[in-house]
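ugh ok fine here u go
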Amino acid sequence: MDLTSLCFSSSLPKMLLLILLLSVSLFPNWVSSLGINYGQIANNLPTPDAVVPLVKSIGASRVKLYDADPRVLKAFANTGVEFIVGLGNEYLAKMRDPKQAQDWVKINVQCHLPATKISCIAVGNEVLTFNDSVLSSNLLPAMENVHTALVNLNLDKQVVVTTAHNLGILENSYPPSSGSFRKDLTQRLTCILDFHSKTGSPFLINAYPYFAYKSNPKQVPIDFVLFESDSGITDALSGLHYGNMFHAQIDAVHSAMEKLGYKKVCLQISETGWPSKGDADEAGATLDNAKKYNANLLKLISEKKGTPMRPNLNLNIYVFALFNENMKPGPSSERNFGLFKPDGTPAYNLGFNATSLVGSNTTTSSGGVAGISPESGFSPPGSSSNGYLSISSDTERLLVQGTLSFWCKLVSPIIAFLLY
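structure:
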C-alpha cells in the first residue's frame, strides 16, 4: 500500500497516519546518494540477510565489497542496490591466465546478474604501495584479462573493471596544483590510466584526511581535516580556495593525472572515513571527531558538488565503513571505523533511522578490508582505514531546529486536515 492510498484509508487511525507522515518527512534525505564499504573482517557481524534492511534504512544505494561474497550478493538480489565487488590481491597471479579470469567472472559475477546489480569489479586494492614488485606486475594483466572476460560474456557494457589506490602513490600533494605521482610508479600508473581511458572505467582513490592529521597533529589544523575550517587555504599557483583537506587531496590526484595527460579519466573516491576510537598515540581518533567528519561528509555528498578544480564532478564517494570490524589487525583505530556496531546500533548519532539488529544471526569473517584476506594477519603501511566528518553540536542543533521548522510548516496543513 503506498502513501497516497494510506492517506485516504478510513481504516487507518488519524494519529497513526500523522506519525507515519512525520517519520517519512523527517527522514534524512541527504543520504540518497550514499555509498558504503561493507567489510567483514569480524566474527560478530549480522548475516547478510539482516544487513539488507539496515543498508536500505540509511538510504545507501551503493555498496562496495572487498570480495564477491555470494551470500551478500544473493541477499541483495532485486533490491536495486548497486555493487562494486572485489577480487583480492591474492588472486592477481591467477588472473594472468585468461581462462581463470573468465571462470572467476562466471562464478562470481555473471551468475548473480541481473538480479543483483553489479556495476564494477575492483581488481586488487592499494597494490602499488605494497612495495611488492611481483604483485604490482600482476595488476594490469589481471585487470585486462578480467575485462576481456566481460567482453567475451557480453557483460562489458554493464560491468567495468578498476582498482583502488591510496594516496601513497603521490610524490607531491601540496599545493594541490603541484600534485604528481611517484616517479617509480609513473610508468605503471600511465598504463593503468590508459586502460581506464580505453574502457571508460573510473580511477579509484582511497582518501583519508585522518592519516594526514594522525601523522602530524601539531602542524595540520584539525578543523581543516574535519570540514570545519573558517579560512582554509588558497593554492597560490592555481588561485583556487580549499576549505577542507579532503578536496585538496582529491585535486592533488587530479593534477597528477593531468601531468600524465589523462584529464578526462573520471576520478572517484572508493574509501574515506574517520575512526571513533584509537590507541593513546593515535591523535584525533575520537568519537566526537568521527561524528564531525562523517556528518560533514554526508552533507558534502548531499550537495552533489565536485572539487575546486572539478566543480561539476560526481565523486561517487564510498564511506568507510558500515560496521566496526573486531578482527582487523593493527592499531585500535582499524577496528573502529564503522558507522554501526555489529548489533546494528549507531556507533554515534548521524541521524540515521536504523533499526537494531540484536538477535540476528551472526556470521564469521569473510572478505577483507583494504584487499587483505582475513588470514593474512597484517595491515600494510599506509593502508586505507577511514576518515569521517561531522558537525559541531551547535551546528547540529541549528540544523535540526531548521529541519523541524521547515517540515512543521510543510505538514501543518495536513495535520489540520487529519485532526479536523
